[in-house]
Design goal:
6 helices
Length: about 325
């Protein structure tokens, strides 16, 4: 399944890597988004039950101005250990904050709750998951898999199989073209599916098959059958624009509008909804204040649109890997 908006890899310098395990009690994984040359970071945490790491470092008033990777992972709070492996890989490549003759990689991270979904509560991502995903991302592979992979392996969206989705848009501002991309890991207590149609709430240009009446009934039943559980949607928006940390955080904040369009309800007490942002700084914004405001609004809107499409893509691209039905399996049977 592809999106007509492309992928987050359409933002130059951005890489994506996954590592996951399934079977024998495993159903979890890790996804790493890298910016090999560094990127200005931001973050906005909206959910009532977040599991995060290094979010304080991204505050505009704090020291760190650039990061090289973001870790998105299963395993709930235990899964934050995956970021240790990402740090090790970055240190080996001397990517990080230079200090005392070495580097300290700052690796923001967020988790979803998928504990026990493979059958064994203690089988969750560790540093090895993060290291493997980081090496893949830094290798520059242009065609990573999407759907029930990486951090989305054990994900659920309502009662449906969740996953990892992506999208991108190009924004023309004056003589310059800016790339905007999004990656979402959808593990939501809310539904991506409209119960009246069996279609995603936010199709955002995605070409999806319209279900028959029988398929719609089965999709809606599956999407609403799961008991409420601990959930979370996490992700990254990236752009080639030159932003400072305050504007990068605003970019992440507006991307939550796309999340809320695609997933209903969102930002609940059992959600840990968190969106990071990465601005690679390849293209400068207009200097005129009036033009700058319009340019920023266009970029932020594109980020929200791309994140909405990425959330939908995560569900329609996923194939079942556990005991939850997948939207694609139900509509294509």
């Amino acid at each position: 399944m592809t999106t007509p908006f492309g992928t987050i890899l359409d933002v130059p310098g951005i890489g994506v890597g996954h590592h996951q395990r399934t079977g024998s009690g495993w159903l979890t994984g890790t996804t790493v988004v890298t910016a090999r040359a560094g990127a200005t970071p931001g973050v906005d945490v909206r959910g009532g039950g977040p599991g995060t790491r290094e979010t304080d470092a991204l505050h505009p008033t704090n020291l760190v101005q650039s990061v090289h990777a973001v870790t998105l992972t299963g395993g709930s709070a235990f899964g934050l250990a995956a970021a240790d492996g990402v740090m090790s890989v970055l240190e080996d490549r001397r990517l990080g904050f230079p200090i005392a003759g070495g580097v300290v990689p700052v690796v923001p991270a967020a988790v979803i709750f998928d504990l026990g979904r493979g059958g064994v509560f203690s089988r969750r991502p560790d540093a090895g998951f993060g290291a493997r995903a980081a090496k893949t991302a830094l290798a520059g592979r242009r065609s990573p898999h999407w759907g029930a992979v990486g951090a989305g392996t054990g994900a659920r969206a309502g009662g449906l199989q969740g996953g990892v989705g992506t999208a991108s848009k190009l924004v023309d501002i004056g003589d310059a073209t800016f790339a905007v991309g999004a990656l979402a890991v959808v593990n939501s207590v809310g539904s991506v599916i409209d119960p009246d149609t069996g279609l995603p709430w936010e199709r955002a240009g995605l070409r999806v098959k319209r279900p028959t009446a029988e398929q719609r009934r089965d999709i809606v039943q599956a999407a609403t059958s799961a008991a409420p559980s601990l959930n979370t949607t996490i992700g990254v928006v990236a752009t080639s624009a030159l932003l400072d940390k305050a504007l990068a955080s605003k970019f992440a904040s507006v991307a939550h509008d796309g999340l809320a369009r695609a997933i209903r309800p969102a930002h609940g007490l059992t959600d840990g909804d968190t969106i990071f942002s990465l601005a690679t700084g390849d293209t400068a914004l207009p200097e005129d204040p009036g033009e700058l405001i319009g340019a920023l609004n266009s970029l932020f809107q594109a980020g929200a649109d791309a994140f909405a499409a990425a959330c939908t893509h995560a569900i329609v691209a996923a194939e079942a890997v556990g005991d939850a039905a997948a939207w694609s399996d139900l509509v294509n049977r």
